[in-house]
Amino acid sequence: MQDKHTFHRLALAPFVNNGTKLPALWSNLPPEQEASFITFVQNQGMAPLWDVTPACTGLPLSENSREQLHHFRLATAAAYLLQRHSLQTIRHTLDEADIAHVITKGCHTREVYYTEPNLRPAVDIDILIAPEHKLAAIRAFQQAGFEFHAVADNVAQDCSLIKGDTAIDLHWDILRPGRTRQPMTQTLLATRTDFGTHWGLNHAATLYLMLVHPVFRKYTTAPQASLMRLVDLLKLLNQQPQSQQGAIPLLLQSGLATAGWITLAWLQQLTGYRVEMMDEIAPGNIRRRYLKQWLKGDLANRLPAAITQLGFTLAAHDTVKDALQAARLARHHRTQGERHLKLLQQELGTAKPEGR
Q1: Are 28 and 22 spatial neighbours (Cβ–Cβ below 8 Å)?
Q2: Burial of 159 (0-12, 13-18, 19+ CB in 10 A)
Q3: Splitting the chain (356 residues) into consecutive groups of 10 residues, what average pLDDT does each group show?
Q4: Contact, 143 vs 76, CB < 8 A?
Q5: CA dihedral 77, 81, 82, 83 (to 10 degrees)
Q6: Most CB atoms within 10 A, among 11, 83, 265, 345?
Q7: Which DSSP helix (H) or strand (E) runs through 301?
Q8: DSSP string, 74-111
C-alpha cells in the first residue's frame, strides 16, 4: 500500500540536502503515476521550481511532463512581473498616506529568500497594518483605484482590495483576534525592514508567521496548505539559521509555541529535516503524541472542518486558557461578523441602501 504522503516527500526532496534522496524516491514512483504527480506538483505551486532545479531536470521525465512544467513556469513569471510592479504601487500608496506596513507571506519571502523570485507563485499580495490604520489604508487604496471587498467571516482581521488583475489582502491581525494570547500586530510591525522592493518583516518575525499561520488558516496538512510554504521555510532556515532564536520569544509571547512545533514536526515528517528550535517549543509528551497522530493520519484532510477546529487548532494553543479565549472570541466574531461588516461599509461609504 502506497504511503499517503509519497507525493509530498517526492515533491520536497529536491530542496532538502541538495536533493540527494530524489533519485531513489523517483525510482519508486510507478511510471503510470507520473502524470498524477506532475499535476500534484502544479497544484502545490512548485512546477516552476521543478522546471529549473538541477536535481529535477536530471530526472527521466516524459516530454509531456516537461512541457507542463515549463508552461507553468512561464505563466508564473508573467504573473510575477505584474505583482512586482504592484509592490511599487503599494509602497507609494501607503508611504504617501504615512501608514506603516509590511508585505508578508509569498510576495515577501520570494523577494528575500529566492535567487529567482519569479519562480515562486503567489495568488495575492498580503499586507499587514496596525488596526487603527484600517480605514485610512482602505481609503488610500480606493483613491488609487482599488475596489473594497470583505466578507463577514473575516472582517475582524482582513479585507480584499482588487484592481484589474491585482488582488491585495489587507490584514490588521495575523489571525482571527483572540488566536494569539495578546495582539501581535504592533510587535511584528516594530520589526519592519526596508528590503528595497518593499517593507517586510525581519527574518525572525517572518519565521514566526511561517510557523503559526498554516496551522490555523490552512490546518497544516489540508490541501490548501501548499507545500510551497515548506519550501519557503527551508530556504529561510538554511539562509538565516539565527532567526530561530528570534522567533522563539514571539511564539511564547503569543501562546503559540505548540503551533510552531506542529509546522516543524510536519516538515520533519515529510523530509527528515530536524530544526534545532523544536526542543525549545515542544508541548508535553501527551499532547505531542496526540498532535503527531493528526499529522501522520492526515486527519485534517479526512475529517470535517468543525472537528479539525476543535480537535486540532484548539490543541495548537499552549494552554487551556489560551484555547478557551480563542474559542470564545471565535464565537463572538461569528455572531457579530455581519454587524461589523455593515459598520465598516458605512464608514467607507460603500454600504448599500436598505431595501436594495
Answers
A1: no
A2: buried
A3: 84 94 95 96 96 94 97 96 95 97 97 97 96 97 96 93 96 94 97 97 98 94 88 97 98 98 97 96 97 94 91 96 93 90 90 49
A4: no
A5: 90
A6: 11
A7: helix 299-302
A8: HHHHHHHHHHHHHHHHHHHHHHHTT--EEEETHHHHHH
